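Thread title: Can someone regenerate the structure for this chain?

I was given the following input by a collaborator and told the matching structure tokens would be attached. They weren't. Posting the sequence so someone can regenerate them.
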Amino acid sequence: MPASPDEVLARLNLARAVAIEAGEITLKYFRRSVEVERKSDDSPVTVADRESEQHIRRRVLAEFADDAFLGEEFPEQPGNSGFRWIVDPIDGTKSFIRGVPLYGTMVSVERDARAIIGVVNFPPLGECAYAAKGQGAWLLRDGGEAERLRVNTVDRLSESLFVTTAVDSFDMIGRRDAFDRLQAASRVTRTWGDCYGYVLVASGRAEVMVDPVMNVWDAAALQPIMEEAGGTFTDWKGNATIHAGEGIATNGHVLGEVLAITRGLGSADD
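Best answer:
Regenerated them for you:
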């Protein structure tokens, strides 16, 4: 059964609130000396990651005790309501520990294996992007009035800004050719990565963001924002999913050219 508008709105309001609250927690540690630990996959984690996720988990399960909860840093909490919260307390921990302000707190709600709510808060920037299915995508700046997020209308990859998180991630899946071809085909390439790059696309400041390797908590909040902004969020084959372990965001107009490259085809017409 589809979620009711009231069920979605209640969760959207809480998702936005907890993303901002958790972001304030991260700022207590930002540009300060914090111990960096290494997880089993060698990715970094700090007290800020853990404390902010714990805050979100407490707030969510206090209000929606029957919802499932999946966060990056702690074991999954099962639920029976049909809703699952998916959280990345600091997307861009490597940026965070270096004092780079382009990290985000990501909160999403999934229903029937599809993300229907997404919030990405950038604490150092004072910006929070959010969306819910059918309700548009929006950007809050420093507590001001919400502004509508929309992708741009650039329709050629040769005029596009292509963004990715890390060039060597293409090597991890044996697809450095995809990066080389995307860079060659695009007007400009930059590595303003992690969730920040996706919001650049949703807000019309870039046209393409591609990541070869993503966890579901990296992707979940992005799909609603991209789609409600008029763009696309897909895997490398063009499927609209957060569960493929990879991601592509576009303004929609250049998707065909991008998929021709990620699928390993000769051109957009192949």
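The chain has a mean pLDDT of 95.
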